[in-house]
């Protein structure tokens, strides 16, 4: 009787243990199935479709040149963003009629992304958010003394990556331009009257190299600003300014430090000068350093959110690390990108405040 009772008890125990094991296996299998299904839904949800991603460039080069050079960016950006979970129907690239047009587009939300200088960004930071700062090759010249730039021509790139650049005040081949250059190269200080007697070309008032920092330079050296000059024209691009300098319609232009390298071929081939740009132009003023260009996004665009900002940020960093990407971004002399914060451009804000007070 005891043996029979023991056998029944043992059999019951085996049944219970087996049932529990089957229940746990079933639960585990169910959890794994749910996890797989959940992961599949997450992947589906992560792919977001954007019909058009609009990008605006400022006209620091000839607009057609920018459009042609940046055409490959459309496919590069589409591919990178696809890897980051975004299906982009079309990348639309435009060049603003001026710097302000791109800033206004970001503020209005008609542009999603803008490649704009720091000065333009701080003017429109109510509607634009900086996400990247460009890096670029340094130059063989980085002196505050214009004579050093003239004694060491041509200016060549260096291997160092920098996050700033300078603006130069350049005198052209006109009689007045050569007169001012001769004074500087002979060690004579220019007076404001010297400068005021010349014809100047500047960019729009939000351009760091084409307006803001040259205005600060004038204030620091003469207590004057661009609006105090009697003969100033605003041009739509640096290429236009060099064309007018070459034709001797203008005596002085303001520009970024490596712009003569960018326009050396045009100087002889398009503008039909006999001598090189290095022989016929001279630096007569050098500004302090200007923090590099930004990639900024709209705060008001319908497409924009935190996830897309992060994806765009990573996409441009990745693109800049490829040979094809480097070629595209070289149109702006960019060589790479690093993450940026609004506070990086506090000096630009001070510069803008000074320019507005001078005006």
From TrEMBL:
Polar residues biased stretches: 35-45
Domain of life: Bacteria
Region (Disordered): 25-45
Signal peptide span: 1-19
Entry-linked PROSITE patterns: PROKAR_LIPOPROTEIN
A Pfam family reported for this protein in Swiss-Prot or TrEMBL: Phosphonate-bd
Keywords tagged on the record: Signal
Protein name: PhnD/SsuA/transferrin family substrate-binding protein
UniProt organism field: Ornithinibacillus xuwenensis
């Amino acid at each position: 009787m005891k043996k029979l009772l023991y056998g029944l008890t043992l059999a019951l125990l085996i049944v219970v243990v087996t049932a529990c094991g089957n229940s746990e296996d079933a639960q585990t299998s169910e959890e794994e199935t749910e996890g797989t299904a959940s992961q599949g839904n997450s992947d589906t949800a992560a792919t977001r479709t954007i019909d058009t991603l609009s990008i605006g460039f400022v006209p620091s080069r000839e607009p057609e040149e920018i459009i042609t050079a940046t055409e490959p960016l459309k496919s590069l950006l589409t591919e990178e963003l696809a890897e980051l979970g975004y299906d982009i129907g079309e990348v639309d690239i435009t060049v603003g009629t001026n710097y302000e047009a791109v800033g206004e587009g970001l503020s209005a939300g008609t542009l999603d992304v803008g490649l704009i200088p720091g000065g333009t960004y701080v003017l429109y930071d109510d509607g634009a958010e900086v996400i990247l700062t460009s890096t670029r090759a340094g130059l063989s010249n980085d002196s505050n003394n214009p004579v050093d730039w003239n004694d060491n021509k041509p200016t060549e790139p260096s291997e160092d990556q920098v996050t700033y650049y300078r603006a130069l005040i350049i005198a052209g081949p006109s009689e007045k331009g050569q007169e001012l250059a001769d004074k500087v190269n002979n060690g004579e200080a220019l007076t404001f009257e010297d400068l005021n007697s010349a014809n100047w070309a500047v960019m729009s008032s939000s351009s760091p190299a084409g307006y803001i920092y040259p205005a600060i330079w004038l204030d620091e050296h003469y207590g004057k600003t661009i609006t105090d000059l009697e003969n100033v024209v605003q041009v739509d691009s640096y290429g236009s300014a060099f064309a007018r300098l070459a034709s001797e319609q203008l005596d002085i232009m303001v520009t970024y430090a490596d712009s003569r390298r960018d326009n050396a071929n045009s100087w002889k081939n398009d503008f039909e000068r006999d001598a090189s740009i290095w022989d016929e132009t001279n630096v007569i003023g050098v500004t302090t350093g200007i923090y590099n260009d930004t990639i900024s996004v709209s705060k008001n665009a319908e497409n924009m959110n935190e996830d897309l900002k992060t994806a765009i940020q990573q996409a441009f960093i990745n693109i800049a690390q490829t040979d094809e990407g480097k070629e595209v971004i070289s149109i702006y002399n960019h060589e790479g990108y690093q993450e940026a914060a609004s506070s990086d451009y506090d000096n630009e804000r001070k510069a803008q405040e000074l320019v507005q007070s001078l005006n």
